[in-house]
Design a protein that fits this description.
This protein is mainly beta. The chain is 11% helix and 65% strand. The chain is built from one helix and ten strands, in the order αββββββββββ. An eight-stranded antiparallel barrel has the order 1-3-4-5-6-8-9-10. The radius of gyration is 21 Å and the shape is elongated. 27% of the residues are buried.
């Protein structure tokens, strides 16, 4: 009898777990994050140190059958310190609206869960320009760029926590001889109000 009760309890738990992953869901929320950026040129790190920036914006998540799509829209300020070929120090400040579209899955039950997500990110320079403060004469930067982003996250009721890595795919410099890409780690906190 004890084995039957344990077997029934295990089966009930599995059914509840699968329903939690299979039922359609919708969430909307706000988020903020700190980011730590670096600047690469032709495969070499230009930065003398990693600088801290921030992100603030909104996110949504639509899920069913154990998978979800999570589009986000946020204002981002990325900073990177670097040394040029002549040994001069500079600092890049990149301000943009970022649009990641993440695909992922959630492992967990009910209000608790761990997420794994990845997808493309599209960045659009704010006011059609990129601010670049440096001791050098590299000031022509593109108005949009693409990258890939991936990471892990946790949901605790209406709160979310994310750790992500973003790798720039496109050259942000107008000068084809100076290919530059941004790489960034970020840690963020969000709140789902729906």
């Amino acid at each position: 009898m004890k084995k039957i009760i344990l077997g029934f309890a295990a089966m009930l738990f599995c059914v509840q777990f699968s329903q939690a992953q299979l039922l359609p869901s919708l969430k909307l929320g706000i988020k903020g994050a700190l980011n730590f950026s670096s600047l690469k040129s032709d495969g070499k790190w230009l930065n003398s140190d990693t600088k801290t920036g921030y992100q603030i914006g909104v996110w949504g998540r639509v899920g069913a059958a154990g998978f979800h799509v999570q589009p986000e829209l946020y204002y981002s300020q990325k900073k990177a310190g670097f040394k040029d070929e002549d040994g001069e120090n500079g600092e890049a400040v990149l301000k943009s609206m970022d649009l990641p579209i993440l695909l992922g899955t959630k492992i967990g039950l009910g209000p608790l869960g761990v997420r794994i997500q990845a997808g493309p990110v599209f960045s659009f320079a704010q006011d059609g320009k990129v601010d670049f403060k440096s001791a050098t004469d590299i000031d022509n930067y593109k108005k949009s760029s693409t990258g890939i982003i991936g990471g892990i996250g946790a949901d605790i009721r209406n709160f979310t926590v994310d750790l992500r890595y973003e790798h720039g795919l496109s050259n942000i410099s107008q000068n084809s001889d100076k290919s530059q890409k941004v790489s960034m780690w970020s840690i963020g906190i969000g709140y789902a109000f729906l």
